[in-house]
Amino acid sequence: ELSGQAITKNMDAFEQVVLVQSNEILERRNIALKNWGTLLSFGNMKDASNDQKTVIMSFLYLAKFEGFFEEDIKICYSWLQLAEQKQVMMKDLENMKVGTIHNYFKSHNLPMFLFEGWNHHLRNSIAHLSFRYIPDEQTIEYEDKPASWKQRFTINEILALNQKLVNVNQMVTVIYSLIIIRNLCDPYKNNL
What we know:
By secondary structure, this protein is mainly alpha-helical. It has helices at 11-43, 50-83, 90-95, 98-107, 120-127, 155-185, 187-190, and strands at residues 6-7, 88-89, 131-134, 139-144, 149-153. Strand 3 and strand 4 form a beta hairpin. Mean pLDDT is 80; it is low at 1-9.
C-alpha cells in the first residue's frame, strides 16, 4: 500500500517503489495490450459496419483513457517531480486529475506530446453515450452536453487518438522495464 507514503528526492527510493509494483504493473500492461490488440483487430474487421466501428473505436478510447492513460500521466508527472528534486506524495498523486497535470505541463512550458491523445470532452461524450455516426459525412459526432462541446471525427481520427494513448502507455512500460533492468544489472546493488 503506497497511500500516504512520500517518495523523496531520491531516485533509488522511487526505483524501490517501481520494483515492488513492477511485476503486477507489467503483467497488467501485457494483458491490457493483448486485449487492446484483440479489440483493435475486431474493430478493423472488413465486414464490420461503420456504425459498429464507431462504437468499437469509441469504447476503445474510453477504455484506454480510463484504464491506463490516467495512471500513465500520473507516473510521468511523478518522474518529473523527482527529476526536479521534489517530493511526491502518493495519496495526492492518486487523487490528482489529468487536467491538473496537463495545466502543470502547460504552465511550465513542458513538452505536451503526452497529451496529444487526451480529450476530456471526447471521453465524457463516450462515457455518457452521447455520440452518433453520420453516414452521409462518414464522421462521428461527439457531444459533451454539460460543457456545450460538440465535435466531429472520422473513424481514422478516433483510431489515431487511440494510438496516441497507446504510445504513452508503451513509453511508460518501456521506462518501467529499463528501471527494472538497471536494478538487476547494477553490481553495486546486487552485492550489498
